[in-house]
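Retry 2 of 3 after timeout on previous attempt. Resubmitting structure tokens to design endpoint.
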């Protein structure tokens, strides 16, 4: 006697072993459904991609689909939507993924923008964590944007659509409408069709961060071509110019992430995440609900050198969930010594910032601001400098008399 085949619920249908129950949304690449895996008895998300293309193109398309899906399916990280399975029918290919109960970041932008600096960092630092995990394993997303970022009620952030983006970019000639959803977040090298690596994702995430902080993307125009032109040629205003509550230190972090030249951006998403968390005084792992109370860094001692970080040294940040926040530091990811010095100066003089300019507004208003590294060095060397000057003057006088 054989087991009976599973029966679909009214209004549902099967793709392979998966029951498709409800349509969740539709985009340029296909449709996303909520489904059910009867074998493991768990909910799943199923993304279908139409295969309505000339027969001679279909085999190459399918090969790319499977190659990319397999690469993405090998990724397992808390900040990535996990891919469970892939398959195809005569008319479409489909990808079975982890079902995440949450909201797209685009939806949250419509109701919460602009985000507080803390919430913007909570989202983008987690995205950067997931990207770094993928980049180290040779997988680049290529389409980071708010609709591909999901935030759960607990504050966990997940990146969706790994394994789809490269297919999207390779099909632009035959599926031109696909590009309309994401030119605002394209890196300059992506706009011109250049070679891409993980730094293109860093640029796109920098654009997302800018939008969270200000409530609007940095590049806006009436046409797709206009947006792309700005991505290549325009320098946006710093976020604090639009939203005065944005800490000035984040202006520098954003500027580095969205540099036109990929060589001037962060070398890794991990460095980007470290500087984001350092800018608002968060520990390296910071899973909190959006809107939760701001973590306050501990009060530095009078002679503390916590802001005196050499340009080449990494940021100090713990790896343990729930560990107390650490003093604000600047990582060596800032390649320019001038940028690093400017950031350190901001850390030194920001005790006078208005409320909302986290993280430095949490210091005691009555306490003297910490001395900048250069000033501290001059103070310590002062007596020696005067002694050297006196000796030099005496030698000059002796020579003049003789």
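Retry 2 succeeded. Sequence:
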């Amino acid at each position: 006697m054989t087991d009976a085949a599973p029966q679909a619920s009214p209004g549902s249908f099967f793709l392979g072993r998966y029951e498709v129950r409800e349509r969740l949304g539709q985009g340029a690449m296909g449709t996303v459904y909520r489904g059910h895996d009867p074998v493991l008895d768990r909910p799943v998300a199923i993304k279908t991609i139409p295969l309505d293309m000339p027969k001679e193109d279909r085999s190459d398309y399918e090969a790319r689909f499977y190659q990319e899906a397999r690469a993405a399916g090998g990724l397992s990280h808390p900040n990535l939507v996990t891919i469970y399975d892939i398959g195809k029918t005569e008319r479409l290919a489909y990808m079975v993924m982890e079902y995440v109960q949450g909201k797209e970041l685009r939806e949250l932008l419509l109701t919460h923008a602009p985000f507080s600096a803390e919430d913007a960092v909570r989202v983008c630092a987690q995205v950067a964590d997931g990207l770094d995990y993928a980049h180290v394993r040779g997988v680049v997303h290529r389409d980071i944007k708010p609709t591909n970022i999901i935030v759960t009620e607990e504050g966990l952030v997940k990146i969706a659509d790994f394994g789809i983006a490269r297919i999207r970019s390779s099909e632009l000639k035959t599926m031109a409408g696909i590009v309309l959803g994401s030119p605002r977040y394209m890196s300059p090298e992506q706009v011109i069709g250049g070679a891409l690596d993980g730094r293109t994702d860093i640029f796109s995430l920098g654009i997302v961060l800018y939008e969270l902080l200000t409530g609007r993307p940095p590049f806006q125009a009436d046409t797709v071509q206009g947006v792309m032109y700005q991505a290549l040629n325009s320098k946006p205003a710093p976020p604090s110019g639009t939203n005065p509550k944005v800490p000035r230190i984040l202006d520098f972090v954003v500027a580095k992430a969205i540099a036109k030249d990929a060589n001037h951006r962060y070398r890794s998403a991990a460095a980007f995440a470290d500087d984001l968390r350092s800018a608002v005084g968060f520990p390296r792992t910071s899973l909190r609900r959006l809107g939760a109370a701001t973590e306050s860094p501990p009060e530095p001692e009078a002679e503390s050198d916590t802001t005196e970080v050499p340009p080449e040294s990494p940021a100090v940040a713990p790896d343990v969930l729930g560990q107390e926040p650490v003093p604000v530091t600047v990582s060596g990811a800032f390649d320019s010594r001038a940028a690093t010095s400017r950031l350190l100066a901001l850390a030194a003089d920001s005790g006078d910032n208005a409320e909302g300019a986290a993280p430095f507004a949490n210091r005691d208003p009555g306490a003297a601001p910490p001395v900048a590294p250069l000033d501290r060095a001059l103070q310590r060397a002062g007596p020696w400098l005067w002694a050297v000057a006196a000796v030099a003057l005496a030698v000059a006088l002796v020579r003049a008399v003789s």
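Attempt log closed. The chain has two domains: 18-98, 101-364.
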